[in-house]
Amino acid sequence: MLAEIGIFDKVAAKAIQAPAIVLHSYRSGAILSKMELVPYVQDKYGAPYLVIHRADLRRILFEEAEARGAQVRLGVKIDIGKTSLADGVLHLANGEEIHADLVIGADGLQSTCRGALFPQLNPLRSTARIVNRTIIDTKAMESSQLNNLVLTPNIHAWLGPRSMAICYLLKGAYNVVLTRPAGDEPDFLGPRPADIEELRCFFRDWDPQLQNLVEIGHKFQKWTLLELDEPLGSWVHSDGKFILIGDAAHPSLPYLAQGAAIGFESALVLAILLSKATHSTQIPKLLQQYYILCQPRAAQVVQASKKMGDIWSMPDGALQTERDRQFLTEIPPSIGYPNPLEDPFFQNWLWGFDVKKAAEEVSAMYPI
Predict the structure, then answer these.
(1) CA 23, 28, 32: angle at the middle one, nearest 5?
(2) pTM of the predicted model, to two decimals?
């Protein structure tokens, strides 16, 4: 997809190609599973598995959009009460009105546009889990026992009871993401400083290598992990001039690490379908094609990510022991393997999806 829109080389230059995904027992650090990514993913699916900092990806997209003539306005607030979704009219807080053949709401998890399309929808709900995240300068790891994490930039995950740690290399930095129960802590939006002593206490019995990462990356941020309280109806307004896309339409929990990818998929599908329009009156039918194709797939990714989080954070006990047995003995992995990315059926469905072919098929099935 990145090659299709002409930015693959720019993304690859800012990304890390992870050799493998390594899953660890949270206490001992023993390897439960190692999924080789190089050269497997490139050979099978025609593109590498890349890891990139969100800020770098956004900058590339921003610069590419401006280079192609897009006008980007920052700090703009929309007055939803005066905005007409049916007419494609946005009313800005400064009194300005913008008229469009199509308004695309791509404003993320805490979407204002979603609230406009579904004013009666219940708000986001807590998953009762807290995410703690920090970025470590790789120079701080060079002279320590953690240098091996930089020299061989695998993606590492420690699977603990109702908690986990995901760590991986970025360009010049090391990303550490810790998920743990919220306990009695109230829900809150957006990042705020985390209590390092609280983290040390929570992870005190975990693999010493992870504890070392917590010590070095002492400046953690935290936020409540949220999800939609209920599935959305159609992402397309009935009058065909307003739609939702990306996390505004189908926010996913982070465990499968496919939220951005499925957003890119939806955007490319929409672009391919809209390119077929010869008149604005055809847009509503093209939007229905977009929804028919993208909604079921996005819903399955959302559910798979939630299930993966549950499996990878099982409490200690019989189910966790059976999960670990499957990791260690089911080689090669079969359908139902506890790492969905190694489940041969699910992996092919997820990574083998041909966006252009699927868009052409749905276009032929529902002609405008």
Answers:
(1) 30
(2) 0.94
